[in-house]
Every structure is written in structure tokens, then in C-alpha cells.
Predict the 3D structure of the following.
Amino acid sequence: MSANVSALRLRAVRIDTDSENVAYLARGCTACRVDVLRAAQKVSVSVVGASVEPMLAVLNVVDDPSIVGPDELGLSEQAFAMLGVPTGTPVTIGPAPRPASLDIVRRKLQGEPLDLGAMRAIARDIAARRYARSEIAAFLVACGREDLERDEVLALTRAMLETGERLDWREPLVADKHCIGGIPGNRTSMIIVPIVAAHGMLIPKTSSRAITSPAGTADTMQVLAEVELAPARLHEIVLRERGCIAWGGTARLAPLDDLLISVERPLALDSPGLMVASILSKKLAAGSTRLLLDIPVGPSAKVRSLADAQRLRKTFEHVGRALGLHVEVAVTDGTQPIGRGIGPVLEARDVMAVLENRPDAPQDLRAKSLRLAGRILEFDPDVRGGDGEGLARDILESGRAAAKMASIIDAQGRRLEPPGPGRLVAEIVAPRAGRIVGFDHLRLARAARQAGAPASPGAGLDLLVRLGDPVRAGQPLYRLHAETSGEFDHARSGCDADAGIAIG
Amino acid sequence: MSANVSALRLRAVRIDTDSENVAYLARGCTACRVDVLRAAQKVSVSVVGASVEPMLAVLNVVDDPSIVGPDELGLSEQAFAMLGVPTGTPVTIGPAPRPASLDIVRRKLQGEPLDLGAMRAIARDIAARRYARSEIAAFLVACGREDLERDEVLALTRAMLETGERLDWREPLVADKHCIGGIPGNRTSMIIVPIVAAHGMLIPKTSSRAITSPAGTADTMQVLAEVELAPARLHEIVLRERGCIAWGGTARLAPLDDLLISVERPLALDSPGLMVASILSKKLAAGSTRLLLDIPVGPSAKVRSLADAQRLRKTFEHVGRALGLHVEVAVTDGTQPIGRGIGPVLEARDVMAVLENRPDAPQDLRAKSLRLAGRILEFDPDVRGGDGEGLARDILESGRAAAKMASIIDAQGRRLEPPGPGRLVAEIVAPRAGRIVGFDHLRLARAARQAGAPASPGAGLDLLVRLGDPVRAGQPLYRLHAETSGEFDHARSGCDADAGIAIG
């Protein structure tokens, strides 16, 4: 009658369950009482005769003998790889013990601050996949509720860093740039990286794909080049070109951060402490030594006041310093989108217009990129304070940045037939005359997503007005692009109801 | 390129994923970009041409064409049943929209109290499986952090009640009994139900299985009889016998409560508000009209002070009254286990000893059961105030309670060869002389679980001492029973390190 006496034969079930280990057990399992295990939800899987710690997995009960038979235990792809023993290996299964660090999570829920030992215990259990996603959510909510103390952020960052690999570029100066996000357009990285790399400074920039926004840097770069590069190839490209603009997901540098983000994102927790730990652990794992951080401030941006930006800056600086990463913060204008396009193709067009010094290039994107690139160039001890921005402008205007971008694109794999803007186009017009007084970033981002971005790369918005512009009733505010009629109609009716641009 | 243009053919994947809908998509899916959907984690599944609301599901990516092919969309058992259309139906898939009520959860996380409309929106989305388990966890943590206001508990209870079915017994008096738990042994329900049913009062008692404890009432009753009864059969038994002692899981009366508990339990959230909503929504769904609630108070019980017990009592009364359930609270002694056995077989033995009026029956279990049964009997308008306990004693001593129990056992399905106590036995002894001054309920429960309870029904502890007893060094405190040597050794070494009984 006991739940864990007889052995089962291990079998790989070729289902990718992402961050959660799943164990598949036939309902008529011969070696255990499925109903009892079921109640525990999580099970512990042990290799017979091996002294390794049992692996924990969520239990799924299978009614199809072609997936698992009554004397088999199936494991999802990631779980099978983690257990690391061949098909057919005898394994036993029992109800999972509660991970000991869940008691620490519980204490945090009761308001107790956590020290490094506590954060380490939690990080190790999460990294070993001993937490269900619901348990990770409880930890994140506990961290987010009154926000973490500065030293808790440091402890969490350190603990996260310890669970993964770290790149070592064997150079003293490895530059990086990050924007905390929230501003549509704002594709400065794709201009900054070629400028900095053309100067010869190492800037191995990896970026995320959009999750809730209409485009991430990786989505926009993908319009022009391959972005999913195997770690060895990426390394080689960076050493040759001094820079890259790639998707950060393949390197799996900060696996714990990826996991926490995947749970945190749908909850929209919005905790500054968690954000700092996430960004800095990732940058440190990537081997960066100097980071320029863009914090846009505006009424519909992530950070809404200068006071909040200052507080955030200090947390970044404190944690960065303790862990050997020099962080410099640029507080920037987040009152309106940067550039005209919102969506991968339209943003890539803006980026290339700036790099190619075209007269119609969006000047706000150009100016912001030069300002930020200048601050990064001043990480170079040979660049005098105050000379960075001029140097960046020289590199851009001389065509060296465009040449470097072409070279990076070729190295990553140029896309020979880049997609164009979505062919279904509608103009969204001003309902009345007046002056542009505000942009609702969330509304604009949602409109671009409804139009199909980023899955349809040509979908999105092309802005035609800026803050302070006078407009007539009926004057176009932006053009909506889509690729399918369903998305087009959906986005258009949303924009007609609320264009996301305030006229005062 | 869009994520949701072409249709896929629906297929049932015979995997039971419990409370979470899972969609299975081949990595090489022909109709959508799996990487884009992947990033969203949850997908929305729509039946082509149907106007029903899309179903949300967690995405698993499949690398085995025998599970799902490139032009197929697989759904787990519960999700397939929920969608309610046949295999082969054309469906489309896209990134899931965020359930609107998650914004309410977010407001709750920021400290905002929730009204009935808010609780309803959340309850409906959770009941429609629109939340991932991590999102449910965030809601529960938000509710638990500073605990809910009384009227929030009422709103949550009402919202939970509205998501499920309600039984109607078509009788004005339907009695029920519940203990908030936390005390080892304490198997009073199995004595109270036969007494009350023998009096003729309707008491359709359903119970849970143990999750974190060594035995639930359903586990203990299962030693003697079947407890998993189809709803129609259970109904018939109750009408004939006036009572039952069954597992509550088959009726699926409060599906939302089951779901919340399954997420809450591993987190050990311990929120009084959530507990009240859970218990009362379940009792109301079961059609109860009068509830006697046992709140044990003691230093290692769930409720540790009389003040906490009073506060909890008032919340129970307030919510019960508003929803038409008369709740009566008995605050009882939770300083030590009730009865001798801890574990299904040992507890069932205690219960039968009391019912059969055996001289060696545990007197504490007998006395407590009579006191509680007496209060329930006084729900009968024909029983005078103060006469209940005497009446209960008459029913017990006359053998009518034992006869009713035999009759209920036969009706549910008598177990012909009930298991005996675990054959591996060790005595755990007092390390020194003194007097018994305290019981650590959590430690004793853990020891019984380590010994194998409830999966091994004969496993557990048999207590030999009570509070205040003098003991010599080396005198046995309890007997440990187990069925397998691994569990036996594990439990014994734990008990040797900490017996869970304090000697002063």
C-alpha cells in the first residue's frame, strides 16, 4: 500500500514543459497509489541505488498507454535531462517533501527581511526546479509587496548570479546598455552598439523579445538579421566585430532570472527591487563591467517621477558596486515615444535612417542615441570627460557606424528579403483641433500589438505628431499598419475609440 | 507570419493536468509561430466559426508526432472536455489575452479592499480556468498578507458559492460538523455522525483526505468502508441512513474551493479569511443549514489564543448569517492530541472502541465527541437546551450509535479485510524523568507521515501518555508503527532526535 515501494522504468516523454518539471504516471500505475500522490501534486523521483538528491516534479496522470505504460514513469524533456540517466533506469516515486526554503518564503510573507543565506536557499531550490510555479509566484509577490530593502536586493542578485554560468571576456572593459523599458519605439541600442563597437569598445549586447510590448530589440534586429545565435558563434562574432545585437535567450546565462521573469510577467508585479536584481544579475552573468542604464521618466512611463528615478538609481548603484559592476544611470525624457515607428519593421526603418544619416531620420532617436553612446564612450579612459557625445557624432556622421552595423548584420546572418510595413494601412486622425499634450504609452503599445506586432513584424504604428504640435480636426496622428484584416479591424476600432494621444 | 491565422485540428491528449488547462502544440507547427506563443506562455484557443469565448491554456511544446502532429492542437483531458467540441474540429490559437480580473488582483496586492463585484470577476475567471496556477497563487497571497476584512470574506464566500452547484436536501434542518484541524487524532466526526443520524437528524458529512496531516476523516473511514461514492449513490445513502462519512472530492461541489486549496496548501498561507471562505462555501454548497464548528486552541494548534479564536468565531458567524447558514462555534482544548492513535488504522481503532463502549476506549475522544454531538442534537427544536449531551450519551451507551455506524459502513461498502497496524513497531521513550508538559502537534504529525501515514494506513503513532502524566526515564511515550523498513528507520531516527513531547 505504500506509495514508494516498487520501481518504475524511466521513460522520456517528449513534451517541453519549460520551467516546470513534469512527471507522467499512468492512472493504473502498478507501483504506487496514484490518488495519494495526486493529492500531494508534487512528487519526488529517485534513481534506484543512486545517492543523488531526489528530483521534484509536478504530477500529470496519463490515460494513454502509448505515452506511459503502467510500469513506467515518464519525465518531460527538461526533467529527463536534469535527472541525467538513460531510458529504462529503475526509479521510485513518492510524495514530494516540501522544499525547506518555502518556510523562508512564508516568513517573508509575514514581513521578515531576508539575508543572503535565505536568498541563497530559495534561489538554489528554485534553480533545482523544486518549486512549482505557484510557489515561485508566492516568493515574487512576497518580495514585491512592500518592496525589498536595498541589501535584500543585493542578496537576491548575488544568489541569482550564483545559480548560473558567468561569461568572462578577458578584457577589463566590457560595456553594456540597458533601458528599463516602457517607452514605445526608443530603439537606441541598435544605434549605440555600432557606434561603440566602431570605436573599438567591446559591447556584446543581448536583448529580449517583446512579451507585453509591440517589439523588443531582438524582434526589431530580426527584421534585418538572424538573432538566435549559438553561444560559441555569438562569442566569435563579438570578438571579431566588438559587438552584437542578439537575442539573449540562447545563452541561458541567467536561467533563474528567465524563470522568475516568466512567472512575474503575467502578474505585472512591477517591483523595483525585483527589476534591479533581474537586470543586474543578467548583466553580471554576461560579463559586463560597465553598464549605462536608461531610466525614462514620464506620466505614462514605468517610472513616473524624478524622485522615483533617483531612488531606483541608488539601488542600481549600490548593488552594482557591491558586485563589481559600474552602473551609470541616464534619466531621460519618457513623456513621448522615441522615433516614429512602433513595431519591428517600422522601428528598424527608423534605426537605419539614423545610421545612414538620412535627412528624414527621426531627430529625437538620433539625439538620444548620441547622448547615450557618448556616455558609454567615456567609459574609455582615453576619452576625455565631455568628449563622448562629439566622438559618437563623428562616428555616426562619418558612416563608420553604418559600416559597423552592416558588418554586424552580415556576421549574424543578413536577412535577404526583409519584410516591409504591413500593407493594410489606416490613418488615425485627431478628433478635434488643438495641441498635442500627452501620449499614453500603454494605449499605443496595445494598439500596435492588436495590429499584430511583434508576431507580424510589419504591423504597428507610424507616428506623425510630437508633443506640442498643433493639429487640426481630422489631421492624421499616426498610421496604423497591419498584415491581416482581422487584426487591422480590431486595432482600428480600438484606436478610433481611444487614439492614445491627448489633444489639449 | 501572424500567430493566429491558419486553423489546426483539435485532438484530445489523454493527460490529466488537474486544475490547469494545457495546450499541446508540435514544435514544427505549420499554422503558428511557436516561439512567439511560447513567450506568452498562455494561449487562447478558439473554435473556428463558433462565437463562444476563447479558452485559455498553458502551452506545452511537443516533440513527439504521435502525441500531436504539426497540423494539430492537443488539449489535456479537462481542457478538451471544457471546450466541448469533437476531435478534428478546426481551432485557431493565439497569444492569450491577460484576464481582465488580474488587474483587480494587482490592486489587492497594493492593499485595496475588494468588493463583491471584484471577487466575482476573479472567481469567474479562475473557475473558467483563465488563471495559471501562479496567478491564483498571487491572488491568494494578496488575500492572505494582511488578511481580508470581514466583508471581503463574505464577498469571496459568496463569489465562490456562485461558481458551483448547490445541493438541496429539501429538509429544513441539515446538520454539519467541521473542525478547523491541526490536532492529531481528534477523529470525532466518525462518532458524532452515527449519534446524530441515529437520532434521525440529517448529517451528510463529507470530509477531505489528508494533505499535510497523517490522516483525514476520509482516510480513516476508508479503513472501514468505501468513501469514494458517486454523487447519486451518496445521496441515496444519506436519505436512507440520515448520514454518511464520505470523501467530499467526488461530488465536486465547490470546484473553486478545491482549486484554491490545491494552490494554497503547499504555500501554507494560513490566512483566517481564506479559511472561513473555504469552509463556509463548501458547507453551503453541500446544502447544510446548521454547522457546528470545532476550533481547538493550544500552543501548537492552528489557533493559539482565545482572542484569536473569538475573532475567527465572529467572522464565521458574520459570513454564515449573511449567507443563511447558522454557525455555532465550540472552542475546544487543543493542547494535546485527542484519542491515542495518529494515522488511519490507529484512529479507526479508537473510533470503534468509543462506539462499541469498550472500557479501554480513549475517554478524551469519547467526552469531546459527546459534547459536540450534544450541541448538534440541540439544533433539533424538540431537544431542550442542555439535554443534548445526555441524549448523545444515551444513544452511544445504548448501542444505537454503533448500530448506525455498522449500517452506514454497510451502505457505503464495508471493507472485508481491514488493514491492521503497521507491523514494524518501535517504542519511543522518555529521555529523562519528569512530567508531560506539552505536545508539539506539528512534530507528531510529521513523525506519523514519515512513518508512512496516510498512504500506508497502518502507519502512525500510538500515544501512551497524556498531559500531566509523570514519566520515568526510558518509559515509552508512544509506539511508532510502519509498514516498510525505509519509512520505519526514517521516522524512528526523527523521533529519537525530537519526540515531539515535552517533559518538564
In short: The radius of gyration of chain B is 25 Å.
